[in-house]
Design brief:
This protein is α/β, with parallel strands linked by helices. The chain has helices spanning 13-25, 36-43, 69-77, 97-105, 118-133, 168-178, 187-193, 205-217; strands at residues 5-9, 29-33, 57-61, 88-92, 110-113, 142-145, 148-151, 156-159, 162-163, 185-186, 227-230, 234-237.
Length: 242
């Protein structure tokens, strides 16, 4: 079984060492970048062969000395090829809901406020990686809804033949809805379907992600035809589309 490789972008060397040792003991390979610029260079394969290996997940601190973590996340999502799709777990020092929402809007897959328990970080990492590797046991690996096509194996989404950019977590959310087309799902049911963390009270993360998905697959995100909101309940993926 291949060891999952993590890249931790964290300027606190002591924290990075402690967490790195814990994750290494838990079976992961861990590389450390002390600045946002160093982390981006590693993701772009710059700085030698050791930096060229694409990590399976990035643990990204919000507060960095050179480039703000939110800006680093934005730049990761703008990178070419597979680098743009690497899952990002963001560490937020203040736990401010707006920091979380902005991070999710920029493409982070999950967030964890500091201070945190290493065991919780490990659980979050495993949940994200599990979503990437677990596939539904459906016979057809490609789902088509009008001009929308979802390829489970390639983990790609196209609309009218044009690629729709989604994060790993957003792809899993879309799959969860599409597999249950026509069925209204509460936010709790959606979170359970992707086997992620449980919803916290008043947590807007699902709504933020749904907005991002709509922006990627809808002709008009403000008047969606594919992912519909059922007020007071949750969301439903429409069976009949364009």
């Amino acid at each position: 079984m291949t060891t999952a490789q993590l890249l931790m972008i964290e300027d606190d060397a002591r924290l990075a060492q402690m967490v790195g040792e814990y994750l290494t003991q838990s079976g992961f390979g861990v590389a450390h970048a002390g600045t946002g610029r160093d982390g981006l260079e590693r993701l772009q394969g710059e700085g030698g062969a050791a930096a060229a290996a694409m990590p399976d997940l990035v643990v990204l601190d919000l507060m960095l000395p050179d480039i703000d973590g939110l800006e680093v996340c934005r730049r990761i999502r703008a990178l070419p090829g597979a680098a743009a799709q690497v899952p990002v777990l963001m560490l937020t020092a203040k736990g401010d809901p707006m920091d979380r929402i902005i991070g999710l809007e920029l493409g982070a897959d999950d967030y964890l406020p500091k201070p945190f328990e290493p065991r919780e970080l490990l659980a979050r990492i495993r949940a994200i990686l599990r979503r990437r590797t677990d596939g539904p046991a459906a016979a057809s690996r490609t789902m088509r809804f009008g001009s929308l096509e979802i390829d489970r194996d390639a983990r790609t989404v196209t609309v009218g033949g044009q690629p729709a950019e989604l994060t790993s977590y957003q792809f899993d959310l879309l799959i969860a809805l599409a597999e249950r087309a026509g069925r209204v799902l509460s936010r709790d049911q959606i979170m359970e379907a992707v086997r992620g963390r449980e919803l916290e009270a008043f947590d807007r993360s699902i709504d933020v992600h749904m907005g991002r998905i709509r922006a990627a697959i809808e002709a008009d995100a403000k008047n969606p035809k594919r992912i519909l909101t059922v007020r007071g309940v949750g969301y439903v993926f429409a069976k009949q589309q364009d």
